[in-house]
């Protein structure tokens, strides 16, 4: 059992899985740290103190720069096969989790500052759209995907329940079902990517063995 838990917590990913994350980083951070934050800020601009909104946007911009920078570093360390790639990947986890945490702050701000109901639901919808998009941008590194999913979803569900009202309780239920569906879809996508890469590596190894055997027979 302990070995199973240790294996589950391991972040020993094949370099090709990390490369998929690197390739999708720019589109992911543009959506999560630039476009969506501007939309959320517009929704909250006349209900939440401007200082809070500007600070929130500034943190998103810093995370955008940080995530792009770490993506470049991670790519470099992979190419030179440095052990520092693991450290860079861990920092990427922290930056990804921080992005989700900022959306949690936005969701709770919309509830605590008594933002109109329709706007609260709009923010929740934006968050879920980003979570759905993470299936294509983060899922190759399953730990990052799970962190982003649950740091977004669990506090959002709690905020909807805290807000109260039949509509928000129903929305919380929908979020729960949606999140479970996204988790399962993400896990299946991760396994597909992982198995595809494993098969590709085996084929490359077999071809090299055949080539070596042919050379030895000449």
Topology:
Elements: H1 2-9, H2 15-44, H3 50-79, H4 84-112, H5 117-137, H6 142-163, H7 166-217
Description:
With 218 residues, the protein is mostly helical. It is built from seven helices and no strands. The chain is elongated, with a radius of gyration of 21 Å. The chain starts with a helix and ends with a helix. Residues 1-9 have low confidence and may be disordered.
Could you tell me the mean pLDDT?
A: 89
* Overall spatial form: elongated
Radius of gyration: 21 Å
The helix/strand series, from N terminus to C terminus, equals HHHHHHH
The helix/strand class is mainly alpha
**Number of E-type strands:** 0
What number of structural domains do the residues give?
A: 1
């Amino acid at each position: 059992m302990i070995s199973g838990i240790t294996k589950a917590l391991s972040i020993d990913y094949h370099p090709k899985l990390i490369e998929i994350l690197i390739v999708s980083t720019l589109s992911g951070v543009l959506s999560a740290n630039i476009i969506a934050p501007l939309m959320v800020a517009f929704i909250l601009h006349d209900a939440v103190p401007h200082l809070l909104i500007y600070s929130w946007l500034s943190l998103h911009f810093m995370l955008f720069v940080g995530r792009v920078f770490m993506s470049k570093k991670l790519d470099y360390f992979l190419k030179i096969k440095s052990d520092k790639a693991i450290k860079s990947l861990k920092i990427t986890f922290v930056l990804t989790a921080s992005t989700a945490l900022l959306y949690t702050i936005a969701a709770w701000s919309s509830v605590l500052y008594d933002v109109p109901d329709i706007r609260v639901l709009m923010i929740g919808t934006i968050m879920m759209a980003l979570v759905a998009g993470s299936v294509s941008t983060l899922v190759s590194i399953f730990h990052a995907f799970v962190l982003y999913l649950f740091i977004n979803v669990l506090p959002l569900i709690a905020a909807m329940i805290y807000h109260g009202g039949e509509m928000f309780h129903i929305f919380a239920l929908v979020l729960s079902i949606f999140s479970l569906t996204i988790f399962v879809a993400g896990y299946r996508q991760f396994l597909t990517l992982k198995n595809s890469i494993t098969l590709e590596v085996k084929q490359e190894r077999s071809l090299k063995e055949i080539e070596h055997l042919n050379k030895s027979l000449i």
